[in-house]
Specification:
The chain is of the alpha+beta class. It is globular, with a radius of gyration of 15 Å. Strands 1, 2, 3, 4, 5, 8 and 9 form a 7-stranded mixed sheet that branches. Strands 6-7 form a two-stranded antiparallel sheet. The protein is built from 4 helices and 9 strands, in the order βαβββαβββααββ.
Length: about 160
């Protein structure tokens, strides 16, 4: 999963979201990337984001849809307005994205797996590569090959993306 925030104490919000997720029955936070500071994509006139990726170990009762629902519940509990009320690609106190669910493919009104924009975003792929450097997407492309297709640079813990 991917985590991001750019309002309030964004770094602390990422930790709080992970803590809340770790308290859910049958869910364990197995790995967490370092935190990166990243420039906003799609709408530049907002504060920079703090981003991380996390690998979750899930019990057999979890489905992609139930996990997505849990992520949305954590977002709501942490003050993120629901879709339709909030500004798309705007500032947010927390953003939790289900990126992958094993090798499962989904394309419904509720959920698309893998996440449809993840391979266009260095702020997703860089931290994901930290926790899963040998990751291969369901179509056979490795995470390194996906990163090689997008222009970005890393300076310290900051990710810059663009031409």
């Amino acid at each position: 999963m991917g985590l991001g925030a750019n309002q309030g104490d964004a770094r602390a919000a990422l930790g709080e979201a992970l803590r809340r997720l770790g308290e859910l029955p049958g869910l364990r936070v197995a790995a967490v990337s370092p935190c990166y500071v990243t420039e906003p994509q799609d709408r530049a006139d907002q504060p920079w984001f703090h981003n991380r990726a996390a690998a979750l170990e899930l019990g057999p009762a979890w489905t992609p849809e139930s996990l997505l629902c849990a992520l949305k519940d954590v977002e709501a509990a942490m003050g993120r307005p629901p879709e339709g009320v909030r500004e798309r690609f705007g500032p947010r106190p927390i953003d939790l994205d289900l990126l992958l669910f094993g090798t499962m493919l989904r394309d419904t009104d509720v959920l698309t797996l893998p996440h449809p924009r993840m391979r266009q975003r260095a702020f997703v792929l860089v931290p994901l590569g930290d926790i899963a450097p040998a990751l291969v997407f369901p179509d056979g492309e490795g995470i390194g090959a996906a990163l090689a297709k997008i222009p970005f640079k890393i300076e310290g813990n900051s990710i810059f993306q663009g031409p």
